[in-house]
Amino acid sequence: MNGFIHSGKFKVLAVVALVLIGLMIRTAVSGGFASFTADALSVIVSPVQKLSSSVSGFFGNIADNVINFSTLKTENEKLKKQLSDYQSKLVNYDEILRENQQLEAVNDIKKENPDFKLKPASVISREAEQWYSSFTVDRGSLDGVSLHDPVITSDNDLVGEVMHVYAHTSVVATVLDPSVYIGVIISDTGDTGQAHGDLSLYKKDSFKILYISKDSAVSQGSIAVTTGTSGVFPKNLKVGTVTSVVGEENGASLSAVCKPMVSPSNVKSVYVLTSFSGKYTESSSASGGSK
User: I want to staple 158 with a disulfide (CB 3.0 to 4.6 A). Which of 167, 184, 237, 274 is the partner?
Assistant: First the structure.
């Protein structure tokens, strides 16, 4: 025991004890023991409080982020819905605008041709493998469309004729199709001929006019229009513009290469000519009408 009292450890403990006793006396004199106890506890508790505050803040931030994410998601869904509604309205507006433009064009055509009955139509599909540029329109038998009805543009340019009719749609064969035969007259010379597609010209977006008089003055730039004698097409629809003229091998006639007035591959809106004065029908044929 005497050895411990005289040891260095005892001396250190004694010094610490004296320091603590001095602190206690000083604290008691200045602010009371309670203040000392509070200070001592604060030294111990403060790190724990800081850790607790940090943990609480961390999870609080997570909760805030979850709430913010939910709010942003809701707002995003609202914006998507608004965008969808706007796009739908825009589509409807475009459709109404297109229909109004078509109806205005119908009125303009009928002013010059009061006997025409027209059905505005839109091109809804094309067949890539059909080189003659046939296409499908959104009008069919329920709209009054019939087989062989002429199909024109708002400028009275002939595009082709209806070759297949379904309830709600129809397939149009164009002037580039070899199966479409059109009686034409060269407007500046009065010469007649027969226009139809040609396999050697389809890649050039062109067709031929055959059986033109060998003495004709037809030349590049001449315009071919329908004769209106067959009952299939009315008179004076513009068919194409002559790009070149060649003599036939037999020497008895000329032929002309023509560009359509409107490229069938580019047309988007057309008009099906369901009725016109002189149109061929079975009833008119039975009563002696021209075919």
Answer: 237
Q: Which of 230, 124, 225 is nearest to 171 (CA)?
A: 124
Burial class (CB in 10 A: 0-12, 13-18, 19+), 269: middle
Neighbouring-strand partners of residue 121: 270
**What is the homologous superfamily of the domain 118-279 according to CATH?**
Rod shape-determining protein MreC, domain 2 (2.40.10.350)
Instruction: With beta carbons less than 8 A apart as the criterion, state whether 172 and 214 touch.
Output: no
What is the structure's pLDDT at 127? 73
Residue showing tokens 């199966």: 179
Structure token pair of residue 142? 């329920």
The CA distance from 208 to 195, in Å, is: 6
- Is 176 within 8 Å of 197 (Cβ atoms)? yes
How many other C-beta atoms are found inside a 10 Å radius of the C-beta of residue 29? 8
In Å, what is the CA distance from 45 to each residue of 39, 42, 49?
10, 5, 6
Average pLDDT across the chain, whole number:
80
Q: What are phi and psi of 239, to 5 degrees?
A: -105, -45
**What backbone phi and psi angles, to 5 degrees, belong to 243?**
-110, -25
Amino acid (1-letter code) at residue 16: V
- Residue 89 is given by DSSP the state H
Six token digits for residue 48: 């724990």
First to last CA, the chain: 143
What local confidence, expressed as pLDDT, does residue 22 receive?
60
Nearest alpha-carbon partner for 177 in 199, 194, 158, 162: 199
Residue 241 vs residue 105, higher pLDDT: 241
The model carries a pTM of 0.66
Least confident span in 88-102, 142-156, 168-182: 88-102
Q: How far apart are CA 184 and CA 193, in angstroms?
A: 5
Residues listed for the chain? 291
8-state DSSP, 261: S
